[in-house]
Structure formats: C-alpha cells, structure tokens
Amino acid sequence: MAGLEELKQAIISGNRDRAKELTKKALDEGVEPREIVVDGIAAAMEVVGEKFRANEFFVPELLIAQRAMKEALSMMSGEAVDYIGTVVIGTVKGDLHDIGKNLVAAMLEGAGFKVVDLKVDVGPEDFVKAAQENSANIVAMSALLTTTMGAMRETVQALDAAGMRDKTRVLIGGAPVTQGYADEIKADGYAPDAASAVEQAKGLLPA
Ligand code: B12
User: Fold this and answer.
1) Which stretches in the chain have pLDDT values below 70?
2) What is the pLDDT of residues 79-97, one digit of tens each?
3) Gap from CA of 125 to ligand 1 centroid (Å)
4) Contact 164/48 with Cβ under 8 angstroms?
5) Which fold has domain 85-204?
6) Whose alpha carbon is nearest atom 66 of ligand 1?
7) Which fold has domain 2-74?
8) How far is the CA of 144 from the centre of ligand 1 (A)?
9) 161-201 pLDDT tens trace
10) In the prediction, which pLDDT does 196 show?
11) Nearest atom in ligand 1 to 143's CA
C-alpha cells in the first residue's frame, strides 16, 4: 500500500508529525493495525538498523527515527487485535539501551502478540511481577552491555524461584548475547535480530 511506503519513509527520515499523520490516515482508511506495524513501522526500523550497521546512519539518526517510530506506535494503542500470546519485554537492570528492544517489541506486536513493555532498567522482580499479572507466555529480555547480561541470569532464577518456568518461557537478545549464553543461563530462546525474535517467540508458544 502506497501510504505505508510513505509512512516507512517518514520514520526513516525521522519526521515525527508526518509519521503520526500517516498512521492515523491508514487507520482511518481501514488498514489492518498489524499491516501498519509490519509493512510500515517495523519495516522502517529494519532499514534504519541496516543503515546503522552500514555506517550510513549514526546514533542521532537512530534516535530521531526511533522517536518517529514511537509517535506512530502511539497512534495504534486501543486498536482491537486478536492476540496469539502475551510477551512481557524489557531491557534488563542497569541497562538503558532500548532501540533494539523497541524494534523487537514492535515486530512482536505486528506479529499478533500482546506486548507489555516494561521499558528499561527492569529488575528481575519487576519481570516476575509483570509476567504473573499478565499471565505472560514469554518474558523477553534485552541487554546491550556485557556488564548487565548477568541480570538475565538473575531474572531466569527469579522466575524459577516463583515457580513460573513451566508456564513462562524466556527469550533473550541484544548485541553481546549469544545462543551459548542463552544455553548457559537456561533461557528457552535467543534471537540475533527482530525478525528472528518473532519466529523464536512463536516457537515458544504452547502447542
Ligand atoms: C545507541 C547507543 C547508546 C545510546 C542508547 C540510546 C537508546 N535509547 O537506546 C546511549 C548514548 C544512551 C548509550 C549509552 C551507553 N552506552 Co551505548 N551504544 C549505543 C550503540 C551505538 C548502538 C546500540 C543500538 O541501538 N543498536 C541498534 C539496534 C537496532 O541494535 P541492537 O540493540 O543490537 O538490537 C538488535 C539485536 O541485538 C536484537 N535484540 C535486541 N534486544 C533484543 C531482545 C530480544 C528478546 C531479542 C530476541 C532480540 C533482541 O534485535 C535488535 C533488532 O535487530 C552501541 C554500539 C553498537 N554499534 O551497537 C553502543 C554500546 C552498546 N554502548 C556501550 C556503552 C559502553 C555505553 C555506556 C556505558 C557509555 C557510557 N560510558 O556512558 C552507556 C550505558 C548507559 C546504560 N546504563 O545503559 C558499548 C557496550 C560495550 C559492552 N560490550 O558492554 C557499545 C557496544 C559501544 C562500544 N563499542 O563501546 N549507548
């Protein structure tokens, strides 16, 4: 849809007002919220991520695009969607990096998950509480610092201690995180990027 391509470009270029306006327009025209997220918002952030990795974009461009993404997403709240599962997501204790986490959250939302975003600097007990309150299928954690990765292990242990591991799966990611680390801390899944995070999350849902 042409409007979604325009929305994508507005987010890539960081034009907040235009991103908001185009999201509203698409909703008014009856475009499915999931289509807006996947083909407009998340698609834009994938391009932003690629440009960043290719050194075509730097941190300011990343942050400006992220703000436009947030504005577009804010227009979507309250839209009725049939959820396929619930994910509680956050960046772990001590860590304030949220660009990758937000991208994963947007992709999960676009794929039909209810996403409860605890934002950044989230302690193990907060993950446990939110997972209990929302009957979450998955707790998803992001860490960008080697010094904060340990909080993922603590959260897995806290979920264990709360007796929740039979119902709640753990998915982890972030630049320093690996499959090996996920195995070591007994997380149920790891993904290196937002698209594979969705595949992993779907695979963690009860059959
Ligand atoms: C932007 C940035 C910042 C911004 C963050 C802004 C924000 N709102 O997020 C600011 C300037 C605030 C910042 C601060 C700091 N930063 Co910084 N930062 C970065 C930078 C440049 C980019 C990170 C990023 O957003 N990447 C783009 C996103 C799209 O990629 P991503 O996060 O990796 O996410 C993808 C995947 O990892 C995965 N993923 C991510 N989360 C999850 C979760 C799940 C569940 C799954 C499945 C997948 C998944 O999917 C995402 C999408 O594809 C990196 C360097 C780099 N090149 O990566 C340094 C970097 C991460 N920062 C670093 C450091 C050291 C810091 C500071 C300590 C610096 C300082 N001395 O103040 C502080 C720490 C603040 C804190 N307490 O958190 C180091 C970390 C070193 C290390 N290994 O520990 C890095 C690597 C820079 C470096 N080379 O030294 N930083």
Assistant:
1) 1, 78-82, 110
2) 666 688 999 999 999 999 9
3) 23
4) no
5) Rossmann fold (3.40.50)
6) 145
7) 1.10.1240
8) 5
9) 999 999 999 999 999 999 999 999 999 999 998 878 988 99
10) 87
11) 41
> Cβ(172) to ligand 1 under 6 A?
yes
Residue nearest to atom 69 of ligand 1 (CA): 145
* pLDDT of amino acid 195: 76
**Cβ(191) – ligand 1 distance below 6 Å:** yes
Residue nearest atom 25 of ligand 1, based on CA coordinates: 99
Phi, psi of 26 (to 5 degrees): -60, -45
For residues 22 and 4, give the distance between their C-alpha atoms in angstroms, rounded to a whole number: 8
The preferred substitution site among 50, 64, 66, 97 for testing ligand 1, maximizing ligand atoms within 8 Å of CB, is 97
Structure confidence at residue 80 (pLDDT): 60
**How many angstroms does the Cα of residue 97 sit away from the middle of ligand 1?**
5
Burial of 190 (0-12, 13-18, 19+ CB in 10 A): buried
Apex 93 CA angle, 109 and 45, nearest 5: 35
Predicted pLDDT at 79: 65
Residues of the chain with CATH 1.10.1240.10: 2-74
For residue 1, what pLDDT is reported?
Answer: 64
Q: Can you say whether residue 86 is alpha, beta or left, with left for phi > 0 and alpha for psi between -120 and 50 degrees? A: beta
β-partners of residue 115 are 87
Ranges for all domains in the chain classified under CATH 3.40.50.280: 85-204
pLDDT at 81: 60
